[in-house]
């Protein structure tokens, strides 16, 4: 292999005139974090709603939750992003489809919402498992105290369930950040996209993707460390992470 290593490439100006190649990668990292955080917020909101619906005695709510999870969980994320970005505008009325196509930062919003919906199915299943793992007495006690169903979930079941499933939710948050790399297929130049652009402009493929890998590992290390502190803080004695 006759490859010329050049670690100084990061400090050379990039062809777009936006600074150095390092600036390109850092701008991609910022976009990765923005996309990942917004997608995770969407996943938590919709995943919590659907997860609760799957535990209600209502058959209609159960079927809606079942269809949501099976639709988003069983279709590859790449296919879903293509559907939202390329197919959906063609299916809508002409004015609405045109509005979607001309939306500023359309790849960013499509990636955040698409990844958020995809991850919400996984959050819903974990929350359902967390609620199901609670003793039946807790729900009965909430009813005995005069709490409505919504109040029982709000003040008793959900606080306990979320504390129990916090470790797997940490893994899902990391998966959400890593899944942003798929957004390059719809034109979003996040970290992986910027590393690919750097490789195409400079032909320094190993340096570009080595730097991208290190940045992903750095982000994951920060997230894992922060979540470990949170898990210890909210741990319930006698449960998974409890003392």
UniProtKB/TrEMBL annotation:
Gene3D superfamilies: MetI-like
Membrane topology: Multi-pass membrane protein
Subcellular location: Cell inner membrane; Cell membrane
Family of this protein: Belongs to the binding-protein-dependent transport system permease family. HisMQ subfamily.
Molecular function in Gene Ontology: transmembrane transporter activity
Transmembrane segments: 24-51, 63-86, 106-125, 145-166, 208-230
Keywords annotated in UniProt: Cell membrane, Membrane, Transmembrane, Transmembrane helix, Transport
UniProt protein name: Amino acid ABC transporter permease
Pfam families, per the entry: BPD_transp_1
SUPFAM superfamilies (UniProt xref): MetI-like
Listed InterPro entries: AA_ABC_transptr_permease_3TM, ArtM/GltK/GlnP/TcyL/YhdX-like, MetI-like, MetI-like_sf
ABC transmembrane type-1 domain mapped to chain residues: 29-227
Claim: Cell membrane is one of the keywords in the record: yes
């Amino acid at each position: 292999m006759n490859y010329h290593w050049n670690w100084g490439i990061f400090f050379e100006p990039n062809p777009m005139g936006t600074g150095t190649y390092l600036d390109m990668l850092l701008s991609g990292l910022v976009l990765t974090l923005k996309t990942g955080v917004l997608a995770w917020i969407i996943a938590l909101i919709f995943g919590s709603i659907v997860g609760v619906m799957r535990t209600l005695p209502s058959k209609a709510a159960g079927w809606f939750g079942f269809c949501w999870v099976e639709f988003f969980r069983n279709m590859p994320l790449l296919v879903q992003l293509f559907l939202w970005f390329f197919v959906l505008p063609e299916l809508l009325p002409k004015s609405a489809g045109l509005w979607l196509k001309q939306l500023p930062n359309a790849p960013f919003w499509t990636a955040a919402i698409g990844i958020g919906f995809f991850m919400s199915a996984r959050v819903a299943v974990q929350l359902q498992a967390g609620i199901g793992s609670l003793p039946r007495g807790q729900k009965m006690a909430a009813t005995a105290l005069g709490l409505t169903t919504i109040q029982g979930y709000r003040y008793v079941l959900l606080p306990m369930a979320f504390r129990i499933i916090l470790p797997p939710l940490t893994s899902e948050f990391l998966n959400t950040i890593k899944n942003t790399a798929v957004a390059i297929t719809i034109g979003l130049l996040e970290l992986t996209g910027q590393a690919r652009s750097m490789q195409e402009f400079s032909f320094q493929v190993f340096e570009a993707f080595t730097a991208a890998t290190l940045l992903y590992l750095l982000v994951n290390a920060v997230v894992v460390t922060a979540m470990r502190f949170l898990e210890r803080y909210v741990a319930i004695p006698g449960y998974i992470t409890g003392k």
